[in-house]
Amino acid sequence: MNHKKYKKENVKNKINKNMMYRKSEKKEEFYNSDQIEGRNAVLELLESNKDINKIFIENGEKQGSIHKIIAKAREKGIILVEVDRNKLKQMAQTENYQGVIAIVPPYEYCEVEDILNTAKEKNEEPFILILDGIEDPHNLGAIIRTAETAGVHGIIIPKRRAASVNSTVNKVSAGAVQYMKIARVNNINDTIHYLKDNGLWIIGTDMYAKNYYYNEDYKSPIAIVIGSEGYGMSKLVKDNCDILTKIPMLGNITSLNASVSSGIIIYEAVKQRNLSK
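The chain above was modelled as a monomer; its predicted structure follows.
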């Protein structure tokens, strides 16, 4: 055996492995961060006091709300990096980034118990949203925005086969994800049983239900289940609901967008709860 050749190849293999390791570390570091894009979303992020690693802004002449973003970032001691338009465009994950991108740590999901504690701290009956397989991040973002404005205590989403919180979701929600508690669970049905054990009624939305949504009582501790865009709720989730309800369809189209459906049901609950005060 040529020991010199073997030693040389061994060293080469070690170098290659180290290079691969460093590349994977960089990839992991990128994967474990997210970015918030657009002026309103970044302003909401700055107002929320969430952690921000750094903010990239387009160099050149500054106009409008970008001055407010720069001032708040400097006030909080956040790193500001000016880059040219092409660089920022390459970084952007959405089309409407408006010359500003904030790099943040990964979204911190909460526990279901944290959502229940939020309701308890506010001395309110729990008002929770369960999303059974919403796959479109635009729908998820729109639902979060509506839920936050309506005072929903928290949202529960599954870990698999569903959209998670990312830059698109944050953008569509207009920054509402910074204020909304979101729990990501392994099993929706186990979570439903946990909520029932804690005194909540589970209300599912299903186009084949007999009762209309406005005839139900939403003043009690409740969790409203919204099904996926294409298939609605899974059979087991539907079976585990205490009540099934539907929105009347009077036209030729027999279904609504998931975010629109959730908005209709959510604000019926808001109306009933406000009238009962």
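The first strand starts at residue 34 and ends at 37.
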